[in-house]
Amino acid sequence: MKEPIPVELLEKYINGTCSELEAEKVKNWYLSFEDEHDHVSTISPAEEQELEQRIYNHILQNIGLTEEEEEIPVEKSRSGVLRTLYAIVGTAAAIVLVAGSIMFYRTHKTTIIQSTESSAEQLETITNNTGQIYKVNLPDKSAVWLNPLAQLTYPKVFGTKSRMVSISGECFFEVTKNSNCPFIINSRAIITKVWGTSFLVRDNDRSNSAEVSVLTGKVSVSIKKTNNTENAALVLEKGDVMLYPHQKAIYLIDQHILKPEIEKTAPELQIWKRVNLSFENKPLREIIPVLNASYHVHIKVASEKLNHYILNADLEGFNLPDVLEALKKSLNVNYEIEENEITLE
Predict the structure, then answer these.
(1) Crossing angle (nearest 10°) for helices 320-331 and 45-59
(2) Which CATH number applies to 270-344?
(3) Tens digit of pLDDT for each residue in 257-273?
(4) What's the pLDDT tens digit per position in 198-213?
(5) What's the order of all strands across the beta sheet hosting 341-344?
(6) pLDDT tens by residue, 324-333
(7) 113-269 belongs to CATH 2.60.120.1440
(8) According to a count of CB atoms within 10 Å of the terminal CB, is the N or C end of the chain lower?
């Protein structure tokens, strides 16, 4: 194993305060790993995503700013949050990934996201065992957010005739539109066919009902039967319920009844609305009330110290899970979701 270099020198390199001789030492140390096996090239995409997140959070663990501390200048941009912060940390991330990723992965053996793969069918299964919302990017660029305890199974490569996934629990979808390749969701009690939309599916073993709530676009919902689980045709069949924005379908399993509802202010959809927010050197104590009002949630802090953390960011087009992820990466603020309450810690 290569001899490590002092953390203080890495910090100086990141901050641009080291001398030319010190910078050359860091570069040479980094390049010394070029021909070594990286130990991570064979891991699955889900494991790679988890490992990247862990390493990134580890790098950021001491960058939470307070009102009394020096601020890191942040460039505001349309694409999102804290671009300058990413640039500052980026070099360190590359260095740590090569030298420290395996040690970090092994010393954190208890995974927060469980991922399994079936080589026979080339399926990927993601189980969210955390108290947070976990985002998965599918092969077709669609996105799925898994609520705590939710599970998603999808093929590593979608077929040419349909895009079929299976879920358990509560998942929010933003589906890439492709009328030639229908997107079908198979859950415990219902089948959901997507016609280009964003929507929430809730179907798990702990409830006597299943629900689909539409935020944008439209979906059709049908009761799951033995003969319709493999039907990939994007056609409306007898008994299907078509849903449009702000509509919901509820399937009462015990009564075997599937019925539509109209909810203009469906609370379960509020956190998924994409809103435009911008904060310029604002403390967290002023940001939280804005988030609560914008997404109709209840956010609280576990420590008064967090209220003094400063955020400078353009959150244009963010839903609440995106905002929470931005807070994690920029201020090293973690969070837990329990029922309708979110605690920052």
Answers:
(1) 50
(2) 3.55.50.30
(3) 998 887 666 777 889 99
(4) 999 999 888 889 999 9
(5) 298-301, 341-344, 335-338
(6) 999 998 888 9
(7) yes
(8) N
